[in-house]
Fold this sequence. Notes:
Blueprint: E1 35-43, E2 49-56, E3 65-72, H1 81-92, E4 97-102, H2 119-134, E5 138-147, H3 149-158, E6 165-171, E7 184-185, E8 188-189, H4 194-205, H5 211-214, H6 218-228, H7 233-237, H8 244-247, E9 262-267, H9 273-282, E10 287-292, H10 310-322, E11 335-340, E12 354-359, E13 368-374, E14 379-380, E15 388-391, H11 416-419, E16 423-426, E17 434-438, E18 441-448, E19 454-462, E20 468-477, E21 496-501, E22 505-509, E23 514-520, E24 536-539, E25 541-550, E26 573-579, E27 582-587, E28 594-599, E29 603-608, E30 613-626, E31 629-645, E32 648-660, E33 664-675, E34 678-690
Parallel strand pairs: 3-4, 3-5, 5-6, 6-9, 9-10, 10-11
Antiparallel strand pairs: 1-2, 2-4, 7-8, 11-12, 13-14, 13-25, 15-24, 16-23, 17-22, 18-21, 18-24, 18-25, 19-20, 19-23, 26-29, 27-28, 28-30, 29-30, 30-31, 31-32, 32-33, 33-34
Amino acid sequence: xxxxxxxxxxxxxxxxIEEDAMTNHIDETPLSDVTQIxxxxxxxxxxxxxxxxxxxxxxxxxxxxxxxxxxxxxxxGDLMAPLDARVGPWFAARGYxxxxxxxxxxxxxxxxxxxEYLPQEQADALEVLSWLESQAWxxxxxxxxxxxxxxxxxxxxxxxxxxxxxxxxxxxxTDDRYADDVHYLGGCLNAFLQLPWSSFMLAHNALPPDxxxxxxxxxxxWFDRLEKMPPNIDAWMKHQRRDAYWKHGSVCEDYSxxxxxxxxxxGWADGYANAVLRFVEGHKGVRKGLIGPWGHAWPQDVGxxxxxxxxxxxxxxxxxxxxxxxxxxDLEPSVRVWMQEAYRPENAPKARPGxxxxxxxxxxxxxxxxxxxxxxxxxxxxxxSELTLRHSPVHRHGALAGGWCPGSLDHPADQREEDxxxxxxxxxxxxxxxxxxxxxxxxxxxxVDRPLALIVARLCHIAPDGVSTLVTxxxxxxxxxxxxxxxxxxxPGKRYSISFELNVAGQVIPAGHRLRLALSxxxxxxxxxxxxxxxxxxxxxxxxxxxxxxRPSSPDDGQDPFEAxxxxxxxxxxxxxxxxxxxxxxxxxxxxxxxxxNDPEGSGTSVLVDADLEVSWGYLDRYSILxxxxxSASVTCERTYELARRDWRVRVETTSTxxxxxxxxxxxxxxxxxEGRRRVFVRSWSRSLPRDLL
Length: 694
């Protein structure tokens, strides 16, 4: 059968973007009285120094102010400088010192960055907080803010209860490092991001500090990183089940450890929305949850829209908890989400239609659970006789899944072609709109013919013209059916009753649309395939059902509490070259393999004018698989970074590959470093790590 979404040769989609998406919402508040200190050294007790960029408000030398801390590995002096410049000065102009610290081993900081969220990272954070408290310009009250890595460690540090930390804003983060991060999904290996993220960190961590900041020791520090820094994926692949490695830094292990107020923020176009409602439910202290339509970036200027005045919202939070101003933010509903209205699938949406809705608490006592039973291709509410339905996997299922964390680009396409590759159950047209808020629950009796298998569930709504729009999805490694800590093989042919949650959804399904549940045992390139293709058997009847969290509307729905977006003026930056991000699908003409090429960031060169620094970057991820051969799955990642100033020029290049056989994963990494045109370092890693019921 011809693949209607694949050209015979070549690739399909190239997605253009604007040169700089962060060009709107400029705040005209004068910043002339904000003092910027490009680098301040924060001493650690073991002799290491962490580099920090500081923005101080006017008069802080006379009257101390609270401090906002962002603590991440993403190089304050170059790669993250344009974004930092839009946030730090804005808060400083409003009476808060803003401190952007590079983690140990990152940017200009001493030491090595050996992995994510290590105890050393958290111990350093406690010393940073103590140092901030001792500064003459600090009142002793500190708030931690950050997205992604900075959102993670804000929660982790809060769980240590440092006295200086009065509140946290955690964006696009998770309380559970195993269940909801880039590594494992429902006990399945996240093929879409596990190796690419490791490849990114390998290249990122291999960059040297800036000679103009650290002086002559820059080369010594650089080679120390090159020689001693391991690829992070080794640790991640050695822990394929939920063990102590993942429990460390997962604050869901003990929500009560966090005593300061926490504001959790997520987005429907992001991979971390589950954690927002789960944290609000699990943590019994002062907390708020916000989910908008956005992707993985600051909500004041990111797609899909509408963007909001998020910095102003943060300011209200900080004023309440760091300045003790009774502004009422703590009296507002604990959950606010953008309830999405129906939309047509598109790759790069500008905005999602919808309205703001609130819940006073979570879980909401207003939620009504609607049960739909699985029948012979139908999804209904009436008791059904038991049938046995079988499905054989197809590895191109998942080709139109979009990115795991798509942001403004690479959203799921029309799912009709995906649905045709699955075992599907479709409802009658809805007589009235259906509003979902929460995590649907799937209970299903199944059997498979292999000892290792996974199951993927997608929930879509079907428009009258047949267009299938993804609402939510999830997956379960069936060896993890009872436990992520103690998985066990399946007995081929044995009937099992399994239950799992789909990802959180906030969606209105219009009247006249139908619901469709699609099940499969493959989802490439999101999930690494099982060693053998597994045929899925589903037993219908009362035992197999989908439970939907139905939210009744409220008179308060639709009220927009947010101000218009604002941010500080852009850093003085000049773009020399720019290739937009792209995501393409095709077939290798020589082998017939299905090939995905993903360039999530684009490539280019820009000049940070004030720093007299040229920054270049390039990315490419390539996913390949042969139909009916799960052991042909492979991922290859390439990364390039280059920094240059006058006669100083350095470049790092990495290539990472991952394949598997029935028993092991095979991973190869290569790192090269150049000074000028001369290669000064090269290192390769090649290893095989056993599959642990994956």
